[in-house]
Amino acid sequence: MSVDSRAIHFRLENPAEHDRREAADREWEQRKARRTDSTLFLEAIPLVVQAEFGVWSKDDLAPLFAAVGWPIEEEPVSFRKGRTAGIESETISISLRASKTEQYLDPDRWGFGEYSRVWMTQRLAANVVDDAYRAALAICVELLGPPPLVGGPDARAIWRDNDTTVLLTRDLGSSISLAVFPTEPHEGREHWEWNWSDWTAAECWLVAPDAEGTRYGFPTWGYPEPLATSWPSLDDYIDALFLSLAADLPVLHPYATWVIWVITVADDPDAGFLQGWFSPHDARMEYRHSADADLTTVNYPAGVAAGRSIAEVVKSELRALGVPSPDRLTLSAWSSPEPQQIHTIRLGLEGSG
């Protein structure tokens, strides 16, 4: 049986199949725990971020795969459906992939070449992922300068120029990835999808460090999120944002330090409020149900558990404010210290940007 916020699921299994699956899961966890060395990923970062991608043809990408030197999968397919190079062993799981531009991306319309993205991923033991990400971020900063945008989910550090965008991410407790893609085709397609479909941006928050030495720009367009029209839809925003802030700020420091947020009832100064902050070191939650009620304050150590705990309190206490729906709520948020600035924060409320 499994339970989520809106449903209960039951499943019947053959006992032998259940035992086989549990044994396979244990074997997988044991293998994953042995994957602690991120050296190959770190050594390959300069090759990826300094590669000449040209017009994103197979001839442009071939030197990168040759320089990395990992075995090529599915030879001699050679770029017809993309290309993957990598190493898969008891202690190493790493890959470099090039995505063939799919027909639906319409290269003539968006300006993609034969290939739409190159990305490198290493799967690692959960206890080393954050340190590996910090090391990768330091190498990227040494090569590219400070990132103009950082955020989450997945600890995003973004370097964007007119030709290419570099994106470093961390899948919590699982892997680190470095992607490069052509900037203008990628952003043009996203903007079209935002206008004409139900596409939503991947990030739930971004901070502009405005660090000295940053030589990259911001995306051409911003993408306001759909407003939360019900409590369950607001719950989804809350879970995503607060978990990411708690998990990602510690590995993005010093490019993002404090994110402070305040939720109030629109046009009602006598109503209660909720507020708090996240930082690399701790988190705080404060709330009161009305202007004359006592203020409740709870402090948390940094980390994923803080994000989950604060999200649960926020969901409960927002309902306790007595407003009929989320459209009565407003969000204010900012980053500290200066010159850091909030670029994007998504909570489905007016004022969230």
Task: Write up this protein.
It is built from eight helices and 16 strands. The protein has about 350 residues and is of the alpha+beta class. The longest helix is centred in the last third of the chain and has 22 residues, at about 230-250.
Structural class: alpha+beta
What spatial form do the alpha-carbon principal axes imply?
A: globular
Strand order of the largest sheet: 3-4-5-9-8-7-6-10-16
H/E topology pattern: EEHHHEEHEHEEEEHEHEEEEHEE
Percent strand: 25-35%
How many structural domains?
A: 2
Q: For the report, how would you describe the main beta sheet?
A: 9 strands, antiparallel
- Helical fraction: 25-40%
Specify Rg, calculated over alpha carbons: 22 Å
Number of DSSP helices?
8
Summed over residues and divided by their number, the pLDDT gives a mean of 87
Q: How many beta-strand runs?
A: 16
Q: Termini, distance in Å?
A: 39 Å
Unreliable runs, pLDDT <50, ≥5 residues? none
Provide a brief overview of the structure.
By secondary structure, the chain is an alpha+beta fold.
Task: Note the topology.
Elements: E1 2-3, E2 8-9, H1 15-33, H2 39-49, H3 58-68, E3 83-88, E4 93-100, H4 107-110, E5 115-123, H5 129-144, E6 149-152, E7 156-160, E8 164-171, E9 175-182, H6 183-196, E10 205-208, H7 231-252, E11 258-265, E12 271-278, E13 282-290, E14 296-301, H8 304-320, E15 329-336, E16 341-345
Antiparallel strand pairs: 1-2, 3-4, 4-5, 5-9, 6-7, 6-10, 7-8, 8-9, 10-16, 11-12, 11-15, 12-13, 13-14
Helix pairs in contact: 2-5, 7-8
